[in-house]
Amino acid sequence: MADEIFFSESPEWYAKIGSIHALLERVKISEEQNADVLRLRRLSRIMSIHSSTAIEGNRLSLAQVTAVLNGKRIFGPPKDIKEVQNAFAAYEQMSRYDPYSVRDLLKAHALLTGSLIEESGRFRSVNVAVVSQNKVLHRGAPPAEVPALVEQALRWGKTAGTHPLIKSSALHYMLEHIHPFRDGNGRIGRLWQSLILSKWNSLFEWMPVETLIHYNQAGYYKALQRSQTKLRVDARPFIDFMLEIIENSLYQYIDAAAETQNVGVNVGVNVGVKKKILTYLKARPELSARELAALLKKTSRTVERHIKELREQGVLRRAGSAKTGRWQIIPNNNEKRTTLAARRNAHTAGNTVL
After folding, report:
1. Do 327 and 238 share a structural domain?
2. What's the gap between Cα 209 and its chain centre?
3. What is the pLDDT of residues 256-309, one digit of tens each?
4. ∠ CA 201-205-209 to the nearest 5 degrees?
5. Which of 153, 238, 285, 318 is close enough to 326 for a disulfide, judged by CB 3.0 to 4.6 Å?
6. Residues 61 and 142 occupy one common structural domain
7. How far is CA 228 from the centre of its chain?
8. What is the CATH number of the domain that holds 278?
């Protein structure tokens, strides 16, 4: 499987790779300066599990996910609880997986989907399609072709000299494109990208990449769709998207390390900064990112990134021009994930205490 078969290169990738290399050094320093790095990493892991399952329609809140992973009893849908427990088990085994082993891919899928779906830990035996509003967006590979296609993709990953940042994004895309399982393809694709990155740099075992994807789900699905036309597959748009997500995840982790060092760990990464931004903008909606940065004693880049995330989450919007406009806070932002929920194969009726 040659590189050009499923992605064309962008000259902009290498500047982004250089930026990510520099940020990894900053991440390393931020961890060295943090008095409770294990707690920081666990917080990031919890955020990743909440985000990766929420993308697929899991209804547990971050507080509920935290409680489940801390061994506490909660009241909630049993399938959602099991999904979180399974995801934690799979992520805890990350360091033991070989990212280019079909057997390990199946093991990880078995952990992610155990007791939840038919053919857990096995390639699907049926045709599947991704459908939205009665429109077929993508059809997975014929089931008879799946084992060979997955083996071919992983063999390419093992032998290609492509940079791991690009390789991991390309393989993430190919797993979604092949759609090798009845369910859990998104979760296994995101886990496998983090796995490949962690084998290149162990810090990626803890980076909140899934959290940033969750913040920009619309962009994630758009990048997947743009990477395939009726004529051919080209993962370039998806790789573009993931490099941006990876870069922002490093900035977010650095910010989280600084906050937990100064004020202790609370559930939620960077919630404090976002709350302060919203508090200032509620009182003074005309403030610019530069003015907010001065008030918060943060860099303009950091504040701009938080504002971008708040806009992506539907919490904040801009009215008017960049120079004379004002910020508007959108109240009661509890957007329901109806489209995502519809993608789930089934729901278990009722709730239970576990």
Report:
1. no
2. 5
3. 888 776 544 333 444 578 888 988 888 888 888 888 988 887 888 888 888 988
4. 100
5. 285
6. yes
7. 20
8. 1.10.10.10
